[in-house]
């Protein structure tokens, strides 16, 4: 067997630094593992979980929960759609399609959009848009635009340039060459990214209600704040069912698109 290729020192140094960071994290954080596994902690947790049983199954409450679930689903779907459109619009200059001058500032804008979490966006937008799902939808769209814009730009940059160059050489217009050569290469990957972010946004939409952005999260915060554990258990179950349904649908669609 031929000898193994030499390892780059940069990889070894990076691994050592990561190991030191992990060790320093365990050393500096006050992790009370022993107190977490005491009999009193286990008994308290068991008593707390027992308060969730049985879930609230009254028809009026189930109807209200279904409406909140539909609101959460609508927030995630609309927020993802707006983010996909905005991300594609920003990905074109971010991939250098309009020259190198715009590439750096657009990439910086995408970094800013995705570096701010959805909860922070929702807290900011609640001041402008008020309580309700509108602010939550805008928060999801703002954060996801930065994520999808960066992923779309990378997909466009990684597409093979030769098909578009061949069309341009044979007299095709720049936009036509892009639409017929480069975009079809990146489109399946871009759709897969969009569906994956929809999975993430359904979870984020369920949490955004905690800050007053509507949906299941707002119901959960209301009942937990009043220590109404049985209605809260029904809301949590609705969250799990909704997330599982969206995950299954998104996974099936990604399988179809990436074949």
UniProtKB/TrEMBL annotation:
Compartment(s) where it occurs, according to its Swiss-Prot or TrEMBL record: Cell membrane
Protein name per the record: Phosphonate ABC transporter, permease protein PhnE
Predominant location: membrane
Any GO MF annotation of the entry: ABC-type phosphonate transporter activity
Recorded superkingdom: Bacteria
InterPro entries, alphabetized: MetI-like, MetI-like_sf, PhnE/PtxC
UniProt KW keywords: Cell membrane, Membrane, Transmembrane, Transmembrane helix, Transport
Record's GO cellular component terms: plasma membrane
PROSITE patterns per record: ABC_TM1
Bilayer disposition of the protein: Multi-pass membrane protein
One Pfam family recorded for the sequence: BPD_transp_1
Domain ABC transmembrane type-1: 69-253
Family the entry assigns: Belongs to the binding-protein-dependent transport system permease family.
TM regions (residue ranges): 6-29, 73-98, 119-142, 232-253
